[in-house]
Amino acid sequence: MLDVFDRCRLHDDFQPVADLGAYPYYRAVQDRLPTGEVIIDGRVLVTAGSNDYLGLSADPRLKEAACRATLRLGTGTAGSRLVNGSLSLHEELETRLAAFLGQEAAMVTSTGFLANMALGALAGPRDTVLADLLIHASLIDSVRAGGARLRRYRHNDMDHLGRLLDACDPAAAGLIVSEGMFSTTGTLCDLPGIAKLARRHGVRVVLDGAHDVGLLGAGGRGAAEHYGLESAVDLHTVAFSKCFGTTGGAVAGPEQIILYLRHHARSMVFSAALSPACTAAALAALDVIETEPERRHRALAAAARLRADLSGLGFQTGTSETPIIPVHAGDIVLCCRLWAELFHEGVFTTAMVPPSVPEGRALIRVSTTALHTDAQLDRIATAFAAAGRRLGLIP
Q: Annotated catalytic, 211?
């Protein structure tokens, strides 16, 4: 037989990147500062690619809550939620999340990825899942795990989604799956269009709120609240690794569906339960989200300022109006070179390359948080100016 290890090698494009000293991944952070900066290789860099939009991962209240829970309940749960890993702390968080999102029930999972993977239990081989072209890998994997037919519609193209729905077997079940706020482009889903088509065709809507729950809407309830269409979302998934400043995830929806997922979602049944520390931190974060709207206001205002600076320099920054600002570079090598130049200038960003983005659409993902000061935003823009000019990306 063939040796499976013979096929295990990096993408061909990464060799020239490595030769240039521009490999952007697995850079170990030595320390995280409360100012939103990090120390890498002894250097202090301003973070400009974090998902910690509200700046809560270093908040003393979350740290204290995590420490208290650890001292009382230990460092782990020693089992899955199904058997011996459930805590009253999990149930408290589930009750709070369900009420926050306007759903009947919620189910806390160990990661946001596993929350999305739980959806694989909803659609089987005879069913069709219609999903935006830019959905997260975890949503794609969940459909594959369930065996449903996956049909992708062009990003926010409701005409294309409508044609795909028209072609579906009316005797089969269907789901429309989208992110609320897309993680690579920062754009919002066209929830009004999705809701209209879902009603017309009698299909359910699942919204991944990983990046928008806690950030968007008058109460921080995400893209659904932003559009005033919370009732149009049948099932919500959430990741605690963004606005909640910790690790974990959840699925929220009708009580009957959540009960079904508790017993049939493999990512729930066969994964160790979320640690006491992360559960308590998520509860503390929810308190902040509900009582301190100024944090999300600051993250959005910082993004508007930085986006104007970067587009003014001549960078292509897309149409996002959220804290995610995509700076388009094109090919992988140029993207990684830009990342390395920014790193040299003291700015720590994120390089997004295929398969995270479509071929030929590599980009630097810049994101702002509530912690970014005006001086840090100026520093980021100055770094982009210097790096872009050296690479010939801007005049």
A: yes
